[in-house]
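Task card 7
Instruction: Convert sequence to structure tokens.
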Amino acid sequence: LDMLPEDFESTVAEETPPDEPLDDLLDCIEPTLHHLSASDQHIIRACDLAHQTVQHYADEQGLTLTAAKSRLLRARARLRKVMVTRCGVRYDEKQIVCCRSDSPCA
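Output:
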């Protein structure tokens, strides 16, 4: 650690590109979740927003890991669809969030 330059942290911060497209989605996720079923909301909140492992979620819900993974994938797909239509989220050719229109989320 003593070998690192004094301005190492600020240099790294300057060189690391911000996750602006993703950060911009944070205000869209919660209002959008309300357009999903209760079970979709529950698994997305637990696994994606609260960072619970899918295995832990499966154990708590009495599901197999495979069933929990399938439910999470389907819930994410439905969330994505709603975010595209309600928040104007757009994806690049690699299907990575690239930007969002100025439409408010509702």
